[in-house]
């Protein structure tokens, strides 16, 4: 099976709480590779494009407000089945239902501040990686 590329974002709550190193350590310990990495601040236009699929949902404004509220760390993660492996490592979106051993299960408390974002499909990964890193590798 070919390697996949996917996007990882350590959200503002994860950065504020000093969990970036732990998140990256877990990604690498799982066998995935960090191909690109930077700290950034997501502007409103990028956030609205990132979450465009949720535009008509009542929580859209809250999503955008949160992701733009502080620094984030964005990474291009590469490896076999990187999309599904990273999603499993992160755990379910709601930290209250995330099992121990996952990032959200070990460190999250509320669904609105759930520490990390990962692309949910190879197609989303391509779109999101282009948004954050520009055109290039898959």
Share of β-strand residues:
15-25%
**Within the CATH hierarchy, at the fold level, what is the topology?**
Alpha-Beta Plaits
Shape: globular
Instruction: Give the integer mean of the pLDDT values.
Output: 95
CATH superfamily: Nucleoside diphosphate kinase-like domain
Main sheet record: 4 strands, antiparallel
Unreliable parts = none
Give a short synopsis of this structure.
The chain has helices at 12-16, 20-29, 44-50, 60-67, 82-90, 103-107, 122-133, and strands at residues 3-10, 33-41, 71-80, 116-118. The protein is α+β, with helices and mostly antiparallel strands and 138 residues long.
Description of the molecule:
This protein has seven helices and four strands. By secondary structure, the protein is α+β, with helices and mostly antiparallel strands. It has one domain: Alpha-Beta Plaits (2-Layer Sandwich), CATH 3.30.70. The protein has a four-stranded antiparallel beta sheet, with helices on both faces. The mean pLDDT is 95.
Tags for this model:
138 residues, 41% helix, Alpha-Beta Plaits
Describe the protein's topology:
Blueprint: E1 3-10, H1 12-16, H2 20-29, E2 33-41, H3 44-50, H4 60-67, E3 71-80, H5 82-90, H6 103-107, E4 116-118, H7 122-133
Antiparallel strand pairs: 1-3, 1-4, 2-3
């Amino acid at each position: 099976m070919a390697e996949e590329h996917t996007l990882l974002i350590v959200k503002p709550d994860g950065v504020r709480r000093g969990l970036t190193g732990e998140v990256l350590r877990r990604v690498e310990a799982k066998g995935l590779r960090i191909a690109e990495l930077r700290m950034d601040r997501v502007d409103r236009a990028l956030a609205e494009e990132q979450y465009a699929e949720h535009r008509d949902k009542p929580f859209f404004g809250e999503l955008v407000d949160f992701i733009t509220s502080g620094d984030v760390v964005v990474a291009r993660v590469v490896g076999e089945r990187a999309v599904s492996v990273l999603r499993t490592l992160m755990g379910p979106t709601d930290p209250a239902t995330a099992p121990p051993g996952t990032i959200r299960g070990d460190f999250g408390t509320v669904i609105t501040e759930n520490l990390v974002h990962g692309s949910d499909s190879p197609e989303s990964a391509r779109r999101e990686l282009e948004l954050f890193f520009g055109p290039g590798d898959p």
